[in-house]
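Protocol step 4 of 6: structure prediction from sequence.
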Amino acid sequence: MMHLAGVLHARGGLAITVLHTRFNALDPALHPEFRFVPVPDGVPADVAAEGKIIDVILAMNAAVHDALASALAEEDGGAACLVIDANLLAVQRVAREIGLPTVVLRTGSAACLRCFLAYPMLHEKGYLPSQESQLYMPVPELPPLRVRDLFQTKISSHEMLCEVIARINETVRNSSGVVINTFEALEPAELEKLRGELDLPFLLAAGPLHKLSSKKTTGSSLLHQDKGCIDWLDTQPVGSVLYVSFGSLAAMDSGEFLEVAWGLVLKMLSRVGEWLFNGPHSRRCWPTGQWVGSGPTAGGTRRWRASARVYR
């Protein structure tokens, strides 16, 4: 979102006001060209402490209406448009009440959004909830996906996930347009299908935003940027490092981690000298002690940060 703000400000000359919660708030001093307005999120302390993202999203949507309406009413001269995350249906409803158009930013792929929009169909045809015997069954409506590739969660109930995705779809369909952090050459077929399915005033493939924005990566990340991994990477021979990404919302247990680890060791790598982890919960999937020192996890470990710098 901050990268998109940087693009709109630097290339479009637009004034930017950032409405944000106090939790994980960015330092306004890093972005003096933007105006920052804190809005209480209203998430109960016990829900926030548990850290289940779906529960937090639903709680925030239930509580944010009045605080956001007050913040928008105090905007001098009024806003021209509100750019929102698709998870924030309550924010869109507030904007509609005051006649403010909304544009949805999707940081995931176009293929992911198509999968979300297809969720009702996937349930009607019995693909979801998935069954163990059907995991490798192709989904001809969403090629080349199989049932195992569909968006699912083990952290929250399937019913809650369906509710969140239904709200995402409503937000997208009721918007004035969608910006997706992808580009035409990467997902041409998916983008064409989305434009036909949504029939919105515009659907813009504007990515990769971190390359278009003039904002420094360190100023837009909510995580502490450990530059030590870059120093380590600079010392490695060319072609010796394999970067495996599951996305910021993916989770796995130790058994699933070991399956991936052994697959990498046996099929691709003769020796793994070091494992690098990103994200606050990455240690949850780390296998028990008998694996350290032998097998796929032999060697050392360190925290991995500054992913966007690596992508550059």
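Step 5 (inspection) to follow. The domain at 2-219 is CATH 3.40.50.2000 (Rossmann fold).
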